[in-house]
Design goal:
The protein has about 120 residues and is of the alpha+beta class. It has one domain. Helix content is about 35%, strand content about 10%. Strands 1-2 form a two-stranded antiparallel ribbon. The longest helix is centred in the last third of the chain and has 14 residues.
Length: about 120
């Protein structure tokens, strides 16, 4: 899975990483390309995947500038995302990780699915 191959629980792209202000070569590198003909490349995370994913979601949110959802299966308004505790944010990322098909980093989400 792109999530596990790239240590990236939500499989966000290098374009999103750059837009969020992550530093190439420090926070991420080019990872797995999307299937052709897409020019998109998954960001391969080099540091803590939860911390970096929270940074990305804090910076760019769940919607594009045009108001479209970034992920087809989840969209959370910024005011709700920022009101969540760090544990709740991690659990949301865990939900996204599961939806993206990841398995190798499941241990990073100890509370997700235990409601």
């Amino acid at each position: 899975m792109r999530t596990d191959e790239n240590h990236n629980p939500t499989a966000f792209t290098t374009a999103i990483a750059a837009q969020a202000g992550l530093t190439p070569g420090v926070d991420y590198t080019d990872g797995t390309p999307f299937p052709q003909p897409s020019p998109l490349i998954t960001a391969k995370l080099l540091e803590d995947p939860i911390v970096l994913t929270v940074r990305v979601l804090n910076a760019v949110g769940f919607y594009t500038h045009a108001g479209l959802q970034r992920w087809a299966y989840i969209a959370i308004p910024k005011f709700i995302w920022t009101a969540l505790s760090s544990d709740q944010q991690r659990d949301i990322i865990g939900f996204m990780y599961q939806h993206e098909g990841g398995t190798a980093m499941r241990h990073l989400f100890p509370h997700y699915g235990k409601q």
